[in-house]
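quick one before i forget lol
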Amino acid sequence: MDVTHGSVLVDDRELLSNVPVYVNEGGREGAYVNWMGCLHLDRESGSKLEQQEYRLKLRDGRLGNITIRKVISTNGAMHVEVLFEGRREDS
């Protein structure tokens, strides 16, 4: 699993920036690469996300769609782990 940072986008508008991201790329489907992972956020940032689709742009330039699957409270409910899955275009 790669550890990096990225931005969460809604309609090309940056909702969250410089977010720690753990991402794992899975199998390919045609021109797409499946990925899944986790965003590590403080409680306030996590409350901005709903279970819907977002764009995730990683520091290394990878860009794809993600869907929030689950939000888990951690560290005495001060932080959350946001589990996602999605896909990006294979470059």
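fyi The chain has a mean pLDDT of 88.
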